[in-house]
Every structure is written in structure tokens, then in C-alpha cells.
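Your task
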Amino acid sequence: EVQLAESGGGLVQPGGSLRLSCAASGFTFSSYVMSWVRQAPGKGLEWVSHINYDGGRTFYADSVKGRFSISRDNAKNTLALQMNSLKPGDTARYYCHLRRQSNDFWGQGTQVTASS
């Protein structure tokens, strides 16, 4: 059974930093592209970033490029998102995402709030 468990969210002042983590189990983590997506209150899902199998290629939405950094540790089956220079517009619930064999898997998400 695929399981994704996000952690690391919280309340931070604008300009601050947070590091999100996603613990993955139930599948061969090192074989799959992994993504972070977010959902702001009252809005739809927004893709944030993804990373290829071995971490050698990373991709970012324009809205977070230069501020966020995605990484993975295939030995520990974990995905991370380092978020710097947070803005109020980054406030959202952040989800770890896996697409496997045309099926989508999500964790429960972790809330990030950037507010003074």
C-alpha cells in the first residue's frame, strides 16, 4: 500500500523559511518522479515542483523558482522541499504526490502559513 506522510509545515513570518518532508513507503521510491503540489484556501491544486528518479533533474513553477528547492534521499525514501523567502501567497496546504501506473497518490498534506 502506497503511503505518503508530509511534515514540517507551520506558521512563519514573510521572508522566513520552512523545510517540508515526505516519508514514502509501499512502493519502489527510487523508481518514480516525485512532486510537491499545493492548494491555497478556496483555490485549486497548483503544481509546485518535481524531481526525477535520481534527483539529477528538478523543475519548479515560476512562482517559486529561486526560492524553493526540492530534493530526495532514495536511501531513506524521503522527499523534501526547502522553502525560503516565503510570501503570504505561499500560504497553502502542501502535498507530496506520486503518479504510478496512471493512479495518483497523495499524503494528508501539511499546512504552511506565511503571515505577520
User: Anything to note?
Assistant: The mean pLDDT is 97. The chain is about 0% helix and 55% strand.
